[in-house]
Amino acid sequence: MHLILGSREDVLVSEISRKLKEKGSSPWLVSEADLFSATPFAFQRNGVETGGFLRIQGNDVSLASLSSVLVRLPLTWWPGGDLDLQDQTFVYHETRAAYFALLSSLRCTVVNRFSLEWWVHDLTYPEALTLELAQRLNCEAALAKPDPMQGRLYPTGPDPSSSTVAVYLAGGRFIPQSHVSRSVENIARMSPAIAEWQSQSGIQLCRLDFDIAGVTPRLRYAETFPVMNEEAPEVVGEIATATLEVLL
Amino acid sequence: MILVLGSSADSVYPKLLSRLRERDQPFVTVDEDQPGRYQVESDDTNGQKVFRIVGDECTGRRPVESIFVRHAVARTLDPAHLRTLGHLQGSLNRMLRRVTCPVLNPPAHAFSNYSKPYQLELLANAGFDIPRTLMTNIPEEARAFWDACDGQVIYKGVSNVTTLAQVLTAESLERLRLLPNSPTLFQEFIRGADYRVHVIGDESFVTRLAGPNVDYRRSLLVTKSQDVVIEPAELPASVIKRCIAITRALGLVASGIDFKQDDLGRLVVLELNPYPQFTFYEGRSGQPITQAVVDYLIQHQTKNTNLYA
């Protein structure tokens, strides 16, 4: 059983759902708003043993029955209803902390298996992730100056600047955003170093932005939640296929 | 020189500074309650990133050889202050990820207690006995757990937002109807004394706490602590060894680990605090925990630093 946590409006979610259906497997699809505010669940732990279920569309889906989970949660949810601001804040943290623990406990494939730093919007996380990967790729990092006004992590689309090229990484495959991206394929093809980084970071799916203004490409950003709605359908299709190879 | 990052309004900060003065140890502080006073600058020198803190008594020129961190919490909702504090702490945290001197404790390694059930997973995998636990937003599941535990269940928050554990009594069962509003953590109730183990590097301090309430913090709040016994104690060497090992495995130098022990001697771990308020326990038990922190900061100073203040 496959579970997709994300929105139908997300082209990657929609493409992966379609491909799974083609293969005869209808995934459970739960949006962020539904997951965080309208999905009953239970999760038990007794020592190292765990168990539980998510109640999706009236069905108790056992956590043990899940063979893969695709996490495409933008983390923009905020509780509403009749709660006052203090209670909203409390419910917000309680809910995120609960789902992080639940997803973390799963033994099946989870793409991406985000760390707590991502879940709590640690603004130093993307920079650390990018630096770590640049070091493994033996290339320079060209970090953007942090925006002091930004209080949380936002998913981004590709940088439209002509000095930046993007390569998507899905499992062990590199998918250039355009023919220009091929100029950095040599770096992106350092598979063992990248695989090690993926294994350590839990990031199987991301977009790597390279600055190509200088003599050698420099890693600008590793986007762990690449927004693809502006991408060419064939690029999204390739990323979906490569992601499915990880999920299946 | 030692750098202390924290809040002058916090109880740990002044005590630590006082001990450093007693030891005649050079130190410099960043009082995060005055966030507008400081700036973190960086440059590349001979291919290495070098950081400089300037402002107040920080000149950005003296080498920092070890760091103590206990970030300030916002004590006001003033948006301008919150923005300045957020900016300073963000800059400090970026710096702390890349400094080459020892940090007690690195904020990037201190997230695990954001999610109590996640931390229980880490603790269970490390070999600790943990209470049987349910996390749910379904009233019927909570009720079934209560029945399965013979009505001996406590409940508390899932995240690190402060909540005090309470016993789920037969009378309070009707409140389970509120569960769909927010997931809640339920655990088998371990009746007995509390233990706090403070780990500082390779050192440890065991403190026993016994009070009339389920959560000793409730007793402290209600009665201003007079009826809570807080005293030095001992736990088996194997437990202490495991406390030191999990602290190190999480990338931390110091921790405060909470246990409950029932009358039959079963010792279960409840949580691990990466920024324990050790001065409180020290004040009541007489254990020299601040001294151990200062000793660690002095003994682990390095000349190989890329931070100046």
Q: How would you sum up this structure, described in words?
A:
The complex is a heterodimer of chains A (248) and B (309). With 248 residues, chain A is an alpha/beta fold. Chain A contains eight helices and eleven strands. In chain A, helix 1 crosses helix 8 and helix 5 runs antiparallel to helix 7. Chain B starts with a strand and ends with a strand. In chain B, helix 1 crosses helix 8. With 309 residues, chain B is α+β, with helices and mostly antiparallel strands. Chains A and B meet through strand 3, helix 3, helix 4 and helix 5 of A and helix 2, helix 3 and strand 8 of B. Strand 3 of chain A pairs antiparallel with strand 8 of chain B, so a sheet runs across the interface.
Briefly summarize what is shown:
The complex is a heterodimer of chains A (248) and B (309). In chain A, 35% of the residues lie in helices and 23% in strands.
Tally of individual helices of chain B: 8
Which class best fits the helix and strand makeup of chain A? alpha/beta
- Measured by DSSP, the beta-strand proportion of chain B falls in 25-35%
SSE pattern of chain A, N- to C-terminal: EHEHEEEEHEHHEEHHEEH
Q: Let me know the average pLDDT of chain B.
A: 93
